[in-house]
Structures are given as C-alpha cells and as structure tokens.
Amino acid sequence: MSISRQNLTIIIVSFMSEKVIYDCISSIPKDIKIIIVDNSNNLSFKNEIEKKFNNVRCILSENNIGMGAGNNYGLSEIDTDYGFILNPDVLLRDDTIDEIIFASKKIDKFSIISPIMEQGNYPNYKLSDEDKSTNKKDEPFKVKSVDGFAMLLNLSRLNKLEDFRNKKYFDENIFLYLENDDLCKRVLQNNENIYVIPKSKIKHLGAKAVDEKYEYQIELSRNWHWVWSKFYYNKKHYSYFNAFLKVCPIFISATFKLLIYFFINKKKKEIYLYRILGFLNAALGNKSFYRPKINY
C-alpha cells in the first residue's frame, strides 16, 4: 500500500519541548494523525496540546525513556503502514509531505525515506562510496543513513523482516545518539533501501528540542550519552576492541581538558568529566542510565 495522509502517522518524542513543539505541529497538515510521547510526564502539557490540536494524541511515559524507546512506544500505538519520526524542533514546509508521497511512487522498494534539510551545509544523511557516484540533484537517491530527527519508516515492509518482527525498530539500550544509525545499519544489512527525497524539505532548528533554561543539564547529558552511545554502537556492530580504539582518543582528550579546566572553568570541567564517565560506563558494560537532573 502506498503512502497517503490517511496511511501515515507522525511520532514526536518530547521532553520539556513546549517552546518549539507547537510550531512543529502547526507545520504538519491537520489531516495527518500525530502521536506525542512525552518523556517529561507533563499532564498539563498533554491536556493543553490535545485541546489545541484535534489530530494529536499525547502519551505520557512514566519515566524519561529516551529517543529510541520513545519512538518505539509511539510506533507501537499506530495503525497505519507508515510512521514518520520527527523531533519537536523540526518545521515542515507546506509541500513536505506531498513531495514525499509523490516521490515514493517512483521508488520500487524502500524501508526508510527522509526529507532533506534546507540548511545544505549540514546534510541530514550519509552517502556510501557507491551512492556518491549516483547522486541526482532532484530525484530520490539512496543513502547509507539518515538523521533521526526526520525519517519515515515503511512499517509494513520492516515488519516482514526477522530483525523487526518484535517491532523494536530502535535499539532501546541507546538512550540518546546513534539510535538512527543503528536502525539504518540493520536495515541495510537486510538488503533494504534508504532514500532521501530532495524536493521534500524541512527546517531543523538544531539542539532546540528542550527548553533552553535546562541547557546546561542537557549539555551534560548529551556529552555523557554521546560517548556512551559511540562506544556501544561500535561494540555492537564491530567489536569491543574496535569500540575501544575508536572512542579511547575521546577519553584521552577529555581527561586532558578536564585537567586544564579543573580550577579555571567549572562548567567545562564538568562537561569533560561527563564524557569520561560516559566512556567508563560503556567500557564497563553498564547501561545508559544517566538522566539529566531536572526538577519537573
């Protein structure tokens, strides 16, 4: 079955995202269903947003379960063949969805497709060496992976694959960072295709999904999970030794910078400390347990 507005649901995982998510939802056509999984468990936010938008259903997670598990939660609640993952700080153009629908009819088979970011200097996809030679400016083209802030999943196709029959599309061991790369890698390992649609454009505000008043705590969390996820991803797909070799330079650099800033800049000292802690916990095989210290 082909993509249509009636056969598509948008999933948005939010966390203290009130300052941006209203604009995101307003940019989505009103006849498309939206499910929000709110990791801040904010009942007043749920009541307000469901009252404001007739096409929105907001699910409160009891705990901050992260991006991967949050996306899986939302996807488990839909009854359409296609699920479109969006971050709260993404804005669609008027024709973003229609261009995806039109372009999808030209593609023989796909498991993931993605719009393209307006900011051309920061592409939201990675090309393989083979794909680089076949890239066309206006036509859909194959890619190695797409960023997780805007990716449409062909659930009817993914559900036929052994790897995804449990409907755990995203690896829930990953709290933040590289959950999209992990999904894309597994899709390619199953000989499935990932496409980018150049005529379908979005604007990504970038690191604006959480209220800026929590910026420092979120920055600490990002640094912890960035290193943890990088180690975990490489260990999972390659080996522990590979992960150690790739991520150890980050650990060494962070240790050196921690010593530099120890007495002169408390915030930078803590940022590098959290990188070190992310590395140590990943290397020891600990779960991605860290959560930003925010008073709800």
Task: Write up this protein.
- The protein is an alpha/beta fold.
- It folds into 2 domains: 5-204, Spore Coat Polysaccharide Biosynthesis Protein SpsA, Chain A (Alpha-Beta Complex); 212-283.
- It has 10 helices and 11 strands.
- β1, α1 (18-26) and β2 (33-38) form a beta-alpha-beta unit.
- It is globular.
- The protein starts with 7 loop residues before the first strand and ends in a 13-residue tail after the last helix.
Summarize the structure.
The chain is α/β, with parallel strands linked by helices and about 300 residues long.
CATH-defined fold name of the largest domain:
Spore Coat Polysaccharide Biosynthesis Protein SpsA, Chain A
Considering the protein shown, what is the CATH homologous superfamily of the largest domain?
Answer: Spore Coat Polysaccharide Biosynthesis Protein SpsA, Chain A
- What distance lies between the first and last C-alpha atoms, to the nearest angstrom? 42 Å
According to DSSP, the number of beta strands is 11
State the CATH architecture of the largest domain. Answer: Alpha-Beta Complex
What integer value in Å does the Rg equal? 19 Å
- Can you summarize the main beta sheet? 9 strands, mixed
Q: How many structurally independent domains?
A: 2
Form type: globular
How many DSSP H or I helices?
10
Quaternary arrangement of the chains shown? single chain
> What is the succession of H and E elements?
EHEHEHEEHEEHEEEHHEHHH
**Derived structural class:** alpha/beta
The residue fraction in helices comes out at 40-55%
Percent strand = 15-25%
User: What number is the mean pLDDT?
Assistant: 93
CATH level-1 class of the largest domain: Alpha Beta
Low-confidence stretches: none
